Structure formats: C-alpha cells, structure tokens
Amino acid sequence: MQRWYKKALQGVALCGALALSACATPPAPTTALEITFQHRPVISLNVARVEIVDAHDVGGSFPRVDHLYTKTPASLVRQWAKDRLKPVGQLGQVSVLIQEAKVIETSRVIDTGILGLFTDEPDTDLTATIVARIEFVNVLDGGSYAVNVEARANVAIFESATLNERDFAYYSALETLGAAFDEAVEKELRSVMKAIIVD
Fold this sequence. Notes:
Number of domains: 1
Largest sheet: 4 strands, mixed
Radius of gyration: 22 Å
Number of helices: 3
Helix content: 25-40%
Number of strands: 7
Order of helices and strands: HEEHEEEEHE
Strand content: 25-35%
C-alpha cells in the first residue's frame, strides 16, 4: 500500500509539472535507436569470408527481457562483425560463434517505510551479457586460432522511470555492452590472430 501511495504522489507531482509545461515535448520513443560500429576502423582479415554462427539460447520469458526488443546482444555481435571485420583474402574463413547473448532484469529491494515515500531509488537492474568465440582454421596447414571473449554491462533503473526511460536504459546497457565487447575482441584478435590481420 505504501508503495502504491508513493506512486500516487509521484503521479500528482507529474500532473502538476505537465500543467505548468503543457507545451513540453515528451521523450521520443527509443525503438528507432541504432547501435553500430561504423565509427571504428575496419579490421581486414586474410580470409575469404566471415561466418556468424548463432548458438545462443534465445530465451523468451522473464527474467530475460532481450526478446522484447528488436535490438539484442546477439544482433549487436552480428552488427559488430558486419561493421568491423572485412575478409580480403582468397582462402579460409573466420567464424564468429555467439555462445551467450542475453539481458537479465532483476528487482531491487526498496525502502517501503515513511522515508521511502519521498525518495527515488533504483528498483531494477539490467545485466547484459555476451559470450563469444572467434575461430580461424588454416585450410593449408590445418593450424587454428581461437579467441574467447566475455563482455558485460549493468544499468540501474529508478522507480520513477517512465516506459520510455526504461527502454532507454535497455539501449544504454546495449551501448555499453557493445563498447566493452568491441574493446575486448580487438585486443584478443590482435594478440592471437595477428598473423591473418592485414594492416
């Protein structure tokens, strides 16, 4: 009941704010947000093709929430490979294996006492994860290279957040996740697979 009352107080405050700024433009929907890696330099590889192998569990129920969005950690990996990896060779391929790609939502315990009625606390955490393996097999000598990468990002959402703000938090988690994944993969690639990187 106290939490409901707190929400009611916030609703009254919101109505008052809207009355004072009736011409204010509501936040734009976040469904059109794009996350790409086109601002990052291309990594040219001495192979004929780059293959994406999607082997992760798609999920589809709480606490997974990525299935509710068109942009997901898995689509992030596919976009990364498209934007950053460029095959320039005649033989062989690099495989990008998506092993785990998900966003988990967990609830936080908030203060339901009197003081809690007048404070805005984070009530939700989003944890975004990518686990991927990048492999190359040399068709000439049978030699192989493999890079394993894990990247994670966490975002807290306040209880007063609107639906648009909660959507924005999801995309913010993906953006942070993408940057972490990009940094980790490039570091490993240049260390382990430098023999097939064309500078």
